[in-house]
Design goal:
Helix content is about 45%, strand content about 15%. With about 160 residues, it is of the alpha+beta class. The termini are far apart.
C-alpha cells in the first residue's frame, strides 16, 4: 500500500527535502490497479540498522520476477530506474520517489555543495544574494569614500 500525502506536506517540502506528493499519488494509482505482468523493485533504509539498505524485488508470478531481473541487467533500461520504487508492467518501466532519501557512505568535500544544494535551488539563490551583498556593500563604501576624497581634492 502507499500512503497519500496530507495537507501540510507541500509546506513541509519547502523546508525539508522529501518526495513530491504527486509521485506518491501516481504510484498509489498504479499499484491500486495492477496491470498484467506487474513487477516492482522497492528500496528503503533498513529498519534494523541505519546506513544499510533493503532492496526487494516482488511480483505475483515467477515469470514477472525473472522479467524484472532481466530488466535490471539491461544497460538500456537502467537509466530509467531511479528512486525508491520501480514498477514494471510489460515493457513499461516507471520510477517513483516515494520516501525521504537517505545517505550511505561519505562524500569528498568538493561534492558537498552539490549534495546539499542540488535539490534546493532557492537556498543556492539566497546564498548567492548574500555573497553579492557581502562583496558589494564594502566595495560600494570604499568607492564612495574614494569619490569623496577625490572631490575634496578638486575643491581645495
Amino acid at each position: 500500500s502507499m500512503s497519500l500525502p496530507d495537507q501540510m506536506e507541500g509546506f513541509a517540502r519547502l523546508i525539508w527535502d522529501g518526495p513530491p506528493p504527486e509521485e506518491r499519488i501516481r504510484a498509489a494509482a498504479l499499484l491500486a490497479a495492477p496491470a498484467e505482468g506487474l513487477a516492482l523493485v522497492a528500496g528503503a533504509q533498513s529498519p534494523l540498522r541505519a546506513g544499510r539498505s533493503v532492496v526487494a524485488i516482488a511480483a505475483p508470478t515467477p515469470a514477472a520476477v525473472e522479467a524484472m531481473a532481466e530488466a535490471l541487467r539491461d544497460p538500456a533500461r537502467i537509466p530509467r530506474m531511479q528512486g525508491d520504487l520501480i514498477v514494471m508492467t510489460g515493457d513499461s518501466i516507471e520510477s517513483f520517489r516515494t520516501a525521504q532519501s537517505y545517505s550511505v557512505g561519505t562524500l569528498p568535500f568538493w561534492m558537498w555543495p552539490n549534495h546539499y544544494l542540488g535539490a534546493q535551488p532557492w537556498v543556492l539563490l539566497l546564498m548567492l544574494l548574500g555573497a553579492s551583498l557581502l562583496i558589494g556593500l564594502p566595495v560600494l563604501v570604499a568607492l564612495r569614500r574614494r569619490a569623496v576624497r577625490r572631490l575634496r581634492g578638486r575643491g581645495a
